[in-house]
Design a protein that fits this description.
Layout lengths: L1 H28 L13 H23 L20 H5 L6 H15 L13 H25 L14 H5 L10 H20 L5 H22 L5 H20 L3 H5 L7 E7 L2 E7 L1
Antiparallel strand pairs: 1-2
Helix pairs in contact: 1-8, 2-5, 4-7, 4-8, 5-7, 5-9, 7-8, 7-9, 8-9
Amino acid sequence: MMILNKLRRAAALFVLLSIGGVSYGAGLFSEPLDYDQVFSLNPVNEGIQLGLGAVLSGSALVCDKFVDIKKNEYNPDDWKKSDIAVMDQLFMRPYSKPLHIVGTGTMALAMATPAILAIMPSSEWLTIGVMYAETLLIANGIKEWTKLLVYRARPYMYFDDYPQDKLEDGDWNCSFPSGHTTFAFAGAAFTTMVFCQCFPASNWKYVVAGASFGMAVLTGAFRMASGNHFFTDVLVGAVIGSAVGFAVPYMHTKSFYGKFERKPKTASASLTPTGFTVSYNF
């Protein structure tokens, strides 16, 4: 109980500090910042990424709702605490609805951190919006397919007072990975990547990164404290979310597009005292 109270207090303090930081930052951001136009859209690139995200998320949804590819029968003998890794056992907790709600709230805040990118010129909003949509679609698709393919009971199922409704709706065996953590870290990584690339000279990039990832870390902590996830669930969710959150914006940068540009072919010839030299670049 003491640990839960400390987590609640930490969350409340973090939210208050975040609100205060946003209020103070609004005054600072009212002044012009040195802005670099780093990201751009490309029809082929958007077709691939949006298509990939839609296929992954859509197919996972269909298989989850209409195709019975994951059994839902619960047998207590199949789930023994002694079979769980020691690291995961350390963070196991019974189900807590209040902490579940708080963790959902911190996830929403982490996912909303890209709102700070509204300080960029309005001409960039479409680019940022499309990139973030691709980020969430791809992260969600990877997360959902992993949940469908990995059969793992949630920590609260190892306690006697597990919620019956979770057993009935089939959510009890979808522990790996943590979806809340995946989304939280995807939002944090996306915000950090875009802000740091567009405002490389701004000292506020450290505040933005710290606040974004701080909220994501809190989300993972609450998912464990609420009994919904093991440590490894949260760890893998953080890796998936961060990887996608950084990768998608990177694949919209000039340096990434430059790797696919065809360099002009040139040829030259010269006469030297030692002979005749021909060079060809391709």
